[in-house]
TrEMBL record, chains A, B:
Family under the similarity heading: Belongs to the serine/threonine dehydratase family.
Protein's recorded name: threonine ammonia-lyase
The keyword Lyase appears for this protein: yes
Protein purpose: Catalyzes the anaerobic formation of alpha-ketobutyrate and ammonia from threonine in a two-step reaction. The first step involved a dehydration of threonine and a production of enamine intermediates (aminocrotonate), which tautomerizes to its imine form (iminobutyrate). Both intermediates are unstable and short-lived. The second step is the nonenzymatic hydrolysis of the enamine/imine intermediates to form 2-ketobutyrate and free ammonia. In the low water environment of the cell, the second step is accelerated by RidA.
GO terms for biological process, alphabetical: isoleucine biosynthetic process; L-serine catabolic process; L-threonine catabolic process
Top-level taxon of the source organism: Bacteria
Signal peptide: none
Catalytic activity as recorded in UniProt: L-threonine = 2-oxobutanoate + NH4(+)
Length: 322, 322
């Protein structure tokens, strides 16, 4: 099993603190009024790369030793992780290669390039791009930085829970948008260490929900449908190590309707004037769907990122709900 | 002349600090790359009411003494000031009456109501609503809280400059979206006290620019045209006291094209995924228009608010520039 302790997360926080922003924790009156929960947002979309992923990436970078810094790193991702690694590598004074599949749109490719990473475009999907990245790691000695399985990544992502609970210690529940599960595990480990009573829930959309069956049946199951989704950051098949770890510390997985998630994007724009990406909006969706577990509770929503395409955002904001 | 000193602003900061957010100061690589300046954003749109106005309002509230707290306050404004006073009054444990003209749209009226203020709708324009507010002040003993002429308001707004310069002390220039001029004067007084070399520029749109002639000719002149503008927070005629004060501490007034201002809204949404109101976007507009004074300089942009209507925002984001 992947080994990550609260001590790892505490040490990660000390390492990465100079490089990350202590993002605002904001009370939402409109969302609280609507849902009957006391709702708070942790605005990690305000991190310099527009997403919390800088926490895990930076912890990996600061954990590199001597020779590793010289040889550099390699990562695979079509999303925020590649930007985070590229950005973190520059701050650490090392070099990064980022592998993306051919389907990756130009703006996501530019995300890595603008921080000076070398871009390798390879294969039809993430799995192939990841294989290529491992190959580059073997051939060049670069360290492979996994987006969610690396203990350093998980520990780094967990720092967001420390930051929130030191600011407000009495949350009943934390809602965690969940893709690979690095954030989910890191947050659960840190939160439970600070308050064993707190509930930690992973969120996926009904358009890509491999966590639901895998978690409930305690074995990897990627047989669910994978449909187009506004929460692109959460999309895709998962792997066993993070599920295994989550089973030790996470309370449950909630599946949020695609439509309620889109409504969450519009709600945040209309009520708070925040642009958030679909992954983050699953927190709003889960609250709108009135899960019994959240009623009357103090709920912390992790607003994980804001990297949403402007056209897509405006289309969603022009939709009609209710 | 209105009397506001650096000491007043320092004291205001101590008074209001428990009630305001220390908002993020963010470096913008895309804007710096485009403009050839080193551009930073102070995200005061993240204050709880979505605008910096809470600073001045809260300083007024915390400066109330004994009997004044019992009698309550009254304000006039169709914009962020009324929300700020309503919100601040609640925190102070006093009551507020807010006067708005009949033209005030429902969502702006709700802004004051949701924090428990009493709403008085009166007259065709701001001037009439203000007269009504003064009348209420006389009749009820409530203290009138002016949106930009009160020394407490100016001192409160100036705290944003202290906050920025304590975080990064070497700015060459500050861009200040300017309506009545309370923020402009407060920022200039604080910034010059911390660094006499720093330049402070007030920004208006070409659709409502009474500051330009008034400042340059050193006498009040509201004869400019007042046209529809996306920067509604800056719109309208001005008064002499703030101009008189600005002449002692402000370096210049820049007039920004309405079109470049709209482009600024779109730019922030596209590059940073921030929703900002038109007033704030004048900072981007001024940079895009390549003022000689800003070239190669370290420029602080005050992002004063994010309270923009979602329909209007999406319309602007769908426009084509260049």
């Amino acid at each position: 099993m992947i080994q990550v302790s609260m001590k790892d997360i505490v040490e990660a926080y000390a390492l990465i603190q100079p490089y990350i922003m202590k993002t605002p924790l904001i009370y939402s009156k409109p969302t609280s009024d609507r849902t009957g929960s006391e709702v708070w947002f942790k605005m990690d979309n305000l991190q310099s790369i527009g997403a919390y992923k800088i926490r895990g990436a930076m912890n990996n970078m600061m954990s590199l030793r001597g020779e590793e810094v010289k040889k550099g790193v390699v990562a695979a991702s079509a999303g925020n992780h590649s930007q985070a690694v590229a950005y973190g590598a520059r701050l650490r004074g090392t070099s990064a290669v980022v592998c993306v599949p051919e389907s990756t749109p130009m703006n996501k490719r530019e995300g890595a390039l603008k921080y000076g990473a070398e871009l390798v475009v390879y294969g039809p999907n993430y799995e192939e791009a990841e294989k290529k990245a491992y190959e580059i790691a073997r051939e060049t000695g670069r360290k492979f930085i996994h987006a969610y399985e690396s203990p350093e990544t998980i520990a780094g992502q967990g720092t967001v829970a420390i930051e929130c609970l030191l600011e407000k210690g009495d949350f009943d529940a934390i809602l965690v948008p969940t893709g690979g599960g690095g954030l989910l595990c890191g947050v659960a480990i840190a939160a439970k260490a600070m308050n064993p009573e707190i509930k930690v829930y992973g969120l996926q959309t009904n358009t890509s929900a491999p966590w639901l069956k895998s978690f409930h049946e305690k074995r990897l199951d990627n047989s669910c449908p994978f449909l187009p989704t506004c929460a692109d950051g959460l999309e895709g098949a998962i792997t066993w190590p993070n599920v295994e770890l989550a089973l030790t510390c996470v309370d449950d997985i909630f599946v949020v309707d695609e439509r309620t998630t889109r409504e969450g994007i519009q709600w945040m724009a209309s009520k708070h004037h925040f642009m958030i990406e679909g992954a983050s909006a699953t927190c709003l969706g889960a609250l709108f769907e009135e899960h019994e577990e959240l009623k009357g509770k103090k709920v912390l929503c992790l607003i994980t990122g804001g990297n949403i395409d402007l056209d897509k955002f405006c289309n969603i904001c022009e939709e009609t709900y209710e």
